[in-house]
């Protein structure tokens, strides 16, 4: 069932060849809330619901029980993430947590899926690093750098992201540069609020006194004619303290708050003083309502006292301000040197034989991680962990199991033992264990997602299977190496789908009339429920196949521990 291809569903009559029950019975059992874990009296001629003689599925309930029992959860080999995190906290209780000042809000710069998995995995990785006493993390297959950026900004870890795509590496570098600007805003957010809470109660009265003193000095220094002539300029000073077009930094003071807006301003707009001020004034007044300003840059609104011009300061005050500015610049420089390069994207194709020292000159003891490591990359990272003494821990979440290479693939070229993706363990290699590409593709299906209503694209699968019948009946191209691709999304009907597919396969579409094409659709549509039921069986088996792949990796890791603990001959 797991290795059957949907394209061949009707040409090979997969349902009648493999299943001895009707589709409605299968769908009813799969969707039933009944407890299938209760064993019924067995039949010696049936194994896991399949007849030992005909090799067909005859007992759907028995298959569901076996699938659940052979999943990772059913085997009892998993621990809850909360329990694992608690164990890591106990093991590293004497180490500082290293978390940065101020929590990042991942929803503001990544989609909901990433916003869920990146913080969750970052917490695990940071705990592993803390437990091992290391500050470096190596992310293999880093992609766009979501995990790397979060680890560096939120936990202050030095992260090296390695990806084979230079496009991903360049994009990650540019994206991280932008995110670092926003990370400073997040880190300052809590400090600003705390400072506001501890302001002295008489600060407002002192501010009033300063304004009165300023007005008094202004009246003394200006003649009546000057006072009238300077009315507009004093009002402008009240609204604008700093105007720095060169750095694109505009500071607007109004209602006792400063708004700093990083923007790209053209020379024409800069010359138009009033237009820019009016626009920035709108941004300032809407800062609390604008979701972009309010969410992405919390520090752009700071409550502070109006800036007193240097000409109105005493020599002692001017010297004090100069000294404070120098100290602040020195602190910013130290901060940039310490944290500016916490995330370093690198471009390289990583295998088990990759020498990390040649890629990372400042390599120290580190934790190796991988979030959605495709195909053989997950296997390579585990082999690398076993071979590199500087790697203290590994945290890997694999994906794209259909891209794994298999050592004992009868239809493909056998790969070398040290580089194949499956099997990794000596235990399964001794049994010449073979999984199959279609089965590995089934392992990517999420039972929970399908159960929650995120079903399979059944109509497109049905169209493709019926197209295969047409190709077999009228063309000598059903075994062609050419791919149909994503034709379904552009098609308005089944007839349109077939004609688009034939053109893409470079076949004569005029050979068939619309009536003939539609006749195939009408012939097989009553059997659509067979395909639906069959694919639900594949989804049910998905956790078992994924469990086989992951347990093979766990077995490999345990074998490495056994080898290292045994004395060499």
TrEMBL record:
Pfam families xref list: Methyltransf_32
Superkingdom, natural source: Eukaryota
Composition skew (Basic and acidic residues), residue ranges: 199-230, 315-337
Ranges for region Disordered: 189-242, 300-342
InterPro entries the UniProt entry points to: Methyltranfer_dom, METTL25, SAM-dependent_MTases_sf
Annotated ranges, domain Methyltransferase: 113-407
Annotated protein name in UniProt: Methyltransferase domain-containing protein
């Amino acid at each position: 069932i797991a290795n059957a291809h949907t394209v061949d569903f009707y040409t090979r009559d997969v349902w009648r060849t493999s299943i001895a029950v009707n589709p409605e019975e299968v769908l009813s059992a799969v969707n039933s809330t009944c407890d299938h874990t209760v064993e019924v009296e067995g039949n010696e001629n049936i194994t896991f619901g399949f007849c030992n003689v005909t090799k067909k599925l005859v007992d759907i309930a028995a298959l569901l029980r076996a699938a659940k029992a052979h999943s990772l959860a059913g085997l009892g080999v998993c621990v809850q993430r909360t329990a694992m995190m608690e164990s890591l906290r106990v093991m590293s209780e004497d180490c500082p947590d290293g978390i940065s000042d101020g929590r990042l809000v991942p929803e503001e710069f990544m989609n909901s899926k990433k916003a869920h998995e990146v913080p969750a995995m970052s917490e695990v990785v940071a705990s592993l690093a803390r437990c091992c006493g290391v500050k470096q993390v190596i992310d293999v297959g880093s992609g766009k750098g979501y995990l790397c950026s979060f680890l560096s900004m939120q936990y202050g870890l030095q992260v090296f992201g390695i990806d084979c795509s230079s496009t991903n590496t360049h994009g990650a570098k540019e994206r991280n540069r932008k995110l670092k600007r926003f990370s400073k805003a997040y880190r300052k957010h809590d400090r600003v609020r705390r400072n506001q809470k501890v302001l002295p109660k008489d600060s407002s009265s002192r501010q009033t006194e300063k304004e009165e003193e300023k007005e008094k000095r202004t009246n003394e220094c200006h003649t009546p004619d000057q006072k009238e002539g300077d009315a507009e300029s004093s009002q402008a000073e009240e609204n604008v303290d700093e105007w720095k077009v060169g750095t694109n930094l505009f500071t607007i003071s109004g209602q006792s708050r400063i708004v700093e807006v990083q923007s790209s301003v053209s020379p024409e707009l800069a010359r138009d003083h009033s237009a820019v001020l009016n626009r920035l004034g709108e941004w300032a007044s809407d800062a609390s309502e604008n979701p972009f300003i309010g969410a992405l840059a919390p520090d752009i609104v700071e409550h502070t006292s109006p800036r007193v011009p240097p000409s109105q300061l005493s020599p002692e005050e001017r010297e004090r301000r100069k000294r404070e500015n120098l100290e602040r610049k020195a602190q910013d420089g130290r901060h940039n040197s310490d944290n500016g390069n916490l995330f370093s994207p690198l471009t390289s194709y990583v295998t088990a034989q990759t020498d990390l020292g040649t890629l990372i000159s400042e390599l120290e003891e580190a934790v190796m991680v991988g979030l959605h490591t495709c195909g053989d990359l997950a296997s390579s990272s585990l082999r690398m962990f076993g071979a590199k003494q500087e790697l203290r821990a590994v945290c890997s979440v694999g994906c794209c199991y259909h891209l794994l290479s298999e050592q004992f693939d009868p239809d493909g070229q056998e790969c070398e033992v040290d580089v194949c993706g499956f099997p990794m363990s000596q235990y399964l290699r001794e049994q010449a264990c073979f999984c199959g590409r279609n089965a590995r593709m089934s392992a990517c299906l999420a039972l929970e997602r399908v159960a929650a209503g995120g079903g399979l694209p059944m109509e497109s699968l049905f169209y493709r299977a019926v197209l295969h019948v047409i190709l077999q009946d009228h063309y000598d191209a059903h075994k062609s190496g050419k791919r149909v691709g994503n034709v379904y999304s552009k098609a308005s009907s089944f007839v349109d789908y077939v004609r688009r597919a034939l053109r893409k396969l470079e076949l004569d579409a005029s050979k068939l009339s619309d009536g003939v094409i539609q006749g195939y659709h009408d012939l097989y549509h009553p059997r659509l429920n067979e395909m639906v039921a069959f694919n639900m069986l594949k989804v049910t088996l998905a956790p078992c196949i994924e469990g086989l792949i992951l347990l093979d990796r766990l077995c490999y890791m345990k074998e490495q521990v056994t080898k290292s603990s045994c004395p060499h001959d």
